[in-house]
Design a protein that fits this description.
The chain has 205 residues and is of the alpha/beta class. It has a domain of 131 residues: CoaB-like (Rossmann fold, 3-Layer(aba) Sandwich). The protein is 32% helix and 25% strand. The chain has 6 helices and 12 strands. The strands form 3 sheets. It has an 8-stranded mixed β-sheet with strand order 5-4-1-6-9-10-11-12, sandwiched between helices. The protein has a two-stranded antiparallel ribbon with strand order 2-3. β4, α2 and β5 form a beta-alpha-beta unit. It is globular, with a radius of gyration of 17 Å. 39% of the residues are buried.
Length: 205
């Protein structure tokens, strides 16, 4: 099975020097990619610069902005429509309305930046022709309770056409993970949920 794993955070530019990003190292995606490679899958890791460094020894490709990640994912899916996609990256939902090619000068009393929504990558993957397994990730806001997390993951699964949603809550990402598919499975430890995900995808071959 060909498997695409995305990992790490996008970097949406503000100007030629600065960017908006998320607090994501890509460690989870890299760990999953290694596990599937060890199981005999043909794995391609599409990651942030930090994630790609962690993925040394794997087939890797670096992404930058949300739009760059989207283009690279679409190219891979169209080349491997019956492959599997595990979309674990932290995708920036907003971008600067008109990012400049120059650097905003320092020393200003105030800098006002207007943000506009980026395309929803997760919603487009099935439209690119993917027929194989598809896993998305959901990190909910810290105040989300268990029922709320399941509701969010269920909506995401329906919206994206993903087979499974790996769902957890910010601030508690190492514990209380739910794999939401046709049934909901709870895991007290993130590593246990990751092992279950690896086993599920391997069994889909």
């Amino acid at each position: 099975m060909h498997v695409l794993v995305t990992a790490g955070a996008t970097r949406n530019p503000i100007d030629a020097m600065r960017h908006i990003s998320a607090n994501s190292s890509g460690r989870t995606g890299v760990q999953l990619a290694r596990a599937w490679a060890d199981a005999g899958c043909e794995v391609h890791l599409l990651g942030s610069p930090e994630a790609v460094v962690r993925g040394e020894g794997l087939s890797t490709e670096v992404f930058g902005s949300t739009r760059d990640l989207m283009a690279r994912m679409e190219r891979w899916v169209r080349e491997h429509p019956d492959g599997a996609v595990v979309h674990a990256s932290a995708v920036g939902d907003y971008e600067v309305a008109s990012s400049a090619d120059t650097k905003i000068p320092s020393g200003r009393d105030e800098v006002v930046i207007r943000l506009t929504p980026t395309p929803k990558i997760a919603n487009a993957v099935r439209d690119w022709g993917l027929t194989g397994p598809y896993v998305t990730f959901k990190a909910a806001s810290p105040e989300t309770d268990a029922d709320g997390l399941i509701a969010l993951a269920t909506k995401q699964r329906a919206r994206t056409g993903s087979d499974l949603v790996f769902a957890n809550v910010l601030g508690r990402i190492a514990t209380d993970v739910a794999l939401v598919g046709d049934e909901v499975r709870w895991f007290a430890a993130r590593d246990d949920a990751m092992h279950a995900l690896v086993s599920w995808l391997t069994s889909e071959r």
